[in-house]
Amino acid sequence: MATLSSPVSGAEGGGNLITPNTHRDNLPRFKNVDGIGHPGGWLATQLASQSGYACASGATAVMPYYLSTLDSLAWRHGIPESFYPESLMPGTREVGRPASGNMWGNVYPRQGFLVQPDDFKAAAVMAQRAGDVITRNGQPHVYLPLTPAKRDGYWPPSPIVENDASTHKWQLLYPRTQPTCAIFPSDPVQSADGGYAWSLWRPYSCCKREGQTFLFSIDFEGGAS
């Protein structure tokens, strides 16, 4: 899917400001992120929903919901989110929990830079940031919201929230395909080329339609019609 977001002028590829010195692991990493409608997941849920065994996905296959190369002002410069209270208050909106001693990084500002010595953890936080944007409306980014509308018998999921498995889970696809999914923090799997891919799974609720929609009833002298 990388062909959908080739580097352009002013939005080149990612990289790390990491030196060979082992005593310096506090320099930022930068990664671009693409949020693409999963073609396999879309097909599977569409087929399953027709049989009544699953809910239809709100995502469209191969739809580019977010390409960070087109969102350079926010993704590369952190404007305007660098000035948000969530960005200025340590411990707010963090991936991981202080009690467990496993903190991976802050969700805000939702940009491509993060001080994190572990490459997998940095990429995971970037994925969490992009997912946080995509699953909400009206964010100060260039993107297409993945926020399907509620209708009779169909209740789409709420926006994803870090550390909350009831809103989402991630399934690693590259560099290794894992058969299970979980929220971050999870077991790190390092990529030789610095690239990572996850599927974002979200809970949908629906019921199978059996008849027409009931509108109203009128009571005539004690008998309903």
What can be said about this structure in brief?
This protein has 225 residues and is of the alpha+beta class. The protein has one domain (25-224).
Distance between the termini: 57 Å
C-alpha Rg (nearest Å)? 21 Å
Binned, the helix content reads 10-25%
**Strand order, largest beta sheet:** 1-2-7
The helix-strand sequence is EEEHEHHEEEHEEEEEE
What's the number of helices?
4
Average pLDDT level: 85
Biggest sheet architecture:
3 strands, antiparallel
Query: How many domains is the backbone divided into?
Result: 1
Number of strands: 13
- Approximate strand percentage: 15-25%
Structural class: alpha+beta
Enumerate the spans where pLDDT stays under 50 for 5 or more consecutive residues: none
- Which overall shape is indicated by the principal axes computed on the Cα atoms? globular
Describe the protein in words.
The chain has 225 residues and is α+β, with helices and mostly antiparallel strands. The chain has one domain (25-224). Helices cover 17% and strands 19% of the residues. The protein has 4 helices and 13 strands. It has helices spanning 39-50, 72-77, 85-88, 119-134, and strands at residues 15-16, 28-30, 34-36, 64-67, 94-97, 102-106, 113-115, 154-155, 169-174, 197-201, 205-206, 219-220, 223-224. The strands form 6 sheets. A 3-stranded antiparallel beta sheet has the order 1-2-7, covered by helices on one side. Strand 12 (219-220) and strand 13 form a beta hairpin. The longest helix has 16 residues, at 119-134. It is globular, with a radius of gyration of 21 Å. The termini are far apart. The mean pLDDT is 85.
